[in-house]
Design brief:
Length: 169
């Protein structure tokens, strides 16, 4: 991922306290669509939280999986995962998407408690998520604990279409 995209995604994660709040566009089963800002600063994104995780009882901040459009920067379908704990540096988390009883694996790179798709190959992940039913995101904490978060993909396609429409203008 380019340094520019990393900065943009970091801005999405850490919205300034004085900034306006994101506007909730719509909810689609397990995914929620939002819009933030306007003009060149407009960001449209969807987010979901894990339905379950292993191991149980770990101490962590909230986790979520996001897909965002940044029309002012010509970025579409940028994926960001917040795992809620410091990740092992240089580790390679994986998203495993189940599509019609088969799985597709996608690798991510890490910084602090966040992960992004390797080499900005977001489109294949988004397409798998549209066709899939579940996704397991597996990462290793800085302490060496392997954590797996299970996400439902129910509503992903409808939520993705909602942000695509919202970010056309």
């Amino acid at each position: 991922m380019s340094a520019r995209a990393l900065i943009v995604l970091s801005m999405l994660v850490a919205l300034p306290a004085t900034a306006q709040e994101p506007k909730r566009l719509s909810a689609h089963h397990d995914w929620v669509a939002y819009v933030y800002g306007s003009g060149k600063e407009k960001i449209c994104y969807i987010a979901s939280s894990p339905k379950s995780h292993k191991p149980k009882g770990i101490n962590r901040d909230p986790a979520y999986f996001q897909v965002a459009h940044f029309p002012g920067r010509s970025l579409k379908g940028e994926i960001h995962v917040e795992v809620g704990y410091p990740l092992k540096p240089n580790s390679r988390p994986r998203a495993r998407v189940t599509v019609k009883k088969k799985t597709q694996d996608f690798r991510f790179f890490v910084k602090d408690s966040s992960a992004w798709v390797v080499d900005q190959k977001n489109a294949p992940v988004v397409e798998a998520m549209k066709a899939g039913s579940t996704m397991i995101f597996t990462a290793t904490s800085a302490r060496g604990t392997v954590v797996s978060d299970s996400y439902s993909l129910k509503g992903f396609t409808a939520a993705y279409k909602a942000i695509t429409r919202a970010c056309r203008s």
